[in-house]
Each structure stands twice: as C-alpha cells, then as structure tokens.
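Page 47, continued from p. 46.
Same chain as before, 117 aa.
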Amino acid sequence: MELSTQQMQTLIVSTLDADKAEDIVCIDLHEKSSVTDVMIVASGRSQRHVSALADHIVRTLKKEGLGKVAIEGMPACDWVLIDAGDVILHLFRPEVREFYNLEKMWSAEASSADGEA
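Result:
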C-alpha cells in the first residue's frame, strides 16, 4: 500500500521532530507547483545533524516502500534535498537556510506585486 501525501508528510514531520530537527515548516504547493504537493523545510544544528536527519528520513521512507527517493547534497550536508515525489524535503544548516529563505519564496504572502522587497 502506497502512502498518501498526507501520510508521507506526517511520517516525515514526526521523524524530523523525534530526531530534534529545528524550525520544521510545511508549505502546501498543490495549487502552486506541478512538481510536488508539499514542501517541508527544516534545520539541523550542524552538518553532522543534517546528515543524520537525511539518512534517517531516507531509511524510514524505504521501510515504508518508497525506495525511489532521490537525494541531493549529502557530501556537504549544508543543504540536503530529498525528493519523495509528492513531498519534497529541504534540510539546511541554519545559516544556509537563512541565506536561501525558501519559505519566503514559496509562501502565499510573498508577492512581487505587493511592493515589498
């Protein structure tokens, strides 16, 4: 049985929470993107923590039958992307997350027409 998008999101968030990931944010993209339905952004305290979070998520998803998970960024572990299809997970070190600020780019409030920089 394949996991629904909601089940996958819940599984990922609960795993991140149990592993002490910081500032976990879920962004609904089903109306904004044809690539994915949900983007999850979270931070690890260090490169080692980001690596451990990513490894545990990938192992958890494989255990649930999602063996075709794509992963990018593991060697450096500053920014690791895990593409599980309907859910994409971005894991960052805090300063890298602040630099790229994906939440602002994808949030509903951010708009180029509202006059804010």
